[in-house]
Specification:
By secondary structure, this protein is α/β, with parallel strands linked by helices. Helix content is about 45%, strand content about 15%. It has six helices and seven strands. The protein has helices spanning about 30-40, 90-100, 140-175, 175-185, 190-200, 200-225; strands spanning about 20-25, 45-50, 65, 80-85, 105, 120-125, 125-130. The chain has a five-stranded parallel β-sheet with strand order 3-2-1-4-5, sandwiched between helices. α4 crosses α6 (about 200-225) and α5 runs antiparallel to α6 (about 200-225). The longest helix has about 35 residues, at about 140-175. The structure holds ligand PQ2 and nicotinamide-adenine-dinucleotide. Nicotinamide-adenine-dinucleotide binds near residues 49, 86 and 88.
Length: about 230
């Protein structure tokens, strides 16, 4: 059964660029500190509001601008988003004030009241893996994330890191977009993960670079022909 505070349906998933943006976290208990740490890691300027901040435990407060005072709506001025992790009563005020100011708000106690929920996340280089249960079971979300990380492992993150490097090379060496397409689609083949596991990153890089050189040498006509064997995604 869906409980009252849950979002009516799963939300729209995005990856926010928080560089240079201000995020306000109200309540710096274990939950607020965890959210603040995630926001800091994503490049946000984090302001934490909690009259008891110095006595709470959890993730360290380093890097957070702490205001040791009870929440007031003025704390939200200039913010891009707000996370309410205090008592349910305070959280309700925070998300209501945020809505009034057009600021994105998350309630750690009443997921249905805010604009977003925070999924369980794993990041490594350019690779981001998230699992959400839309409030049904955050513990399950974290456990499923852990299983997925175990299954994909360093090979997936390492492959993504190599591809960040190789994408500009392809754009420069294979100017014809029809010729590039089969090359880019081939990067999704699980064979690269298998090769990584069997022979390591250098073998993957070597074969990927070889494929780019082949495509660059064969030119638009040949590569476009190769495309016929591949199904559209
Ligand atoms: C994924 C993660 C991300 C993060 O916070 O960074 C996250 N919660 C995590 C852990 C966790 N949270 C809770 C437990 C105890 C077990 C349990 O209660 O199930 C554990 C497990 C633990 O502590 O190990 C308790 C809890 N959580 C919420 C409520 C309120 C309610 O349910 O009404 C209550 C109190 C319930 C009560 O009153 O008892 C609400 C939310 N928690 C969410 C996210 C959002 C939904 C995401 C989703 O459903 O997928 C949402 C809706 C809003 C939000 O906070 O964004 C993080 C994993 C961190 C990691 O390991 O990486
Ligand atoms: N979303 C989640 O992952 C999750 C997990 C567990 C609990 N919760 C909920 O999140 C909230 C926080 O959980 P917690 O375990 O960190 O609790 P906590 O009691 O450790 O921390 C809450 C903090 O809010 C502060 N606070 C109280 N009134 C305030 C005010 N007026 N202004 C600013 N700060 C104020 C307190 O000083 C305290 O440090 C609770 O509502 C809890 O039900 C959420």
């Amino acid at each position: 059964m869906v409980h009252e505070g849950m979002p009516a349906m799963p939300g729209y998933t995005i990856e926010l660029n928080l560089e240079g943006r201000t995020a306000v976290v109200v309540g710096l208990g274990a939950v607020g500190r965890r959210k603040a740490a995630g926001l800091l890691a994503a490049g946000a300027r984090v302001v934490g509001v909690d009259p008891m901040a110095s006595t709470t435990g959890g993730e360290p407060l380093a890097g957070i601008e702490v205001l040791a005072e009870p929440y007031r709506d003025q704390h939200l001025s200039g913010a891009f988003l707000a996370v309410a992790a205090a008592t349910p009563e305070v959280n309700r005020r925070v998300v209501r004030d945020a809505k009034g100011l057009g600021i994105l708000g998350c309630s750690a106690s009443d997921p249905g009241e805010g604009d977003f929920v925070v999924p369980a996340t794993w990041t490594s280089g350019p690779l981001v893996l998230t699992v959400s249960t839309s409030g049904a079971s955050p513990a399950l979300a974290a456990a499923l994330r852990d299983r997925a990380v175990e299954a994909l492992g360093p090979a997936a993150a390492g492959l993504a890191a190599i591809l960040v490097e190789l994408r500009p090379l392809v754009l420069a060496r294979v100017p014809d977009s029809a010729a590039r397409r089969p090359l880019f689609l081939e990067w999704a083949d699980p064979k690269w993960l298998a090769l990584w596991q069997e022979e390591g990153p250098e073998a993957v890089r070597r074969d990927l670079v070889r494929r780019i050189e082949q495509a660059a040498a064969s030119g638009p006509a040949d590569s476009a022909h190769g495309r016929e064997d591949r199904p559209e995604p």
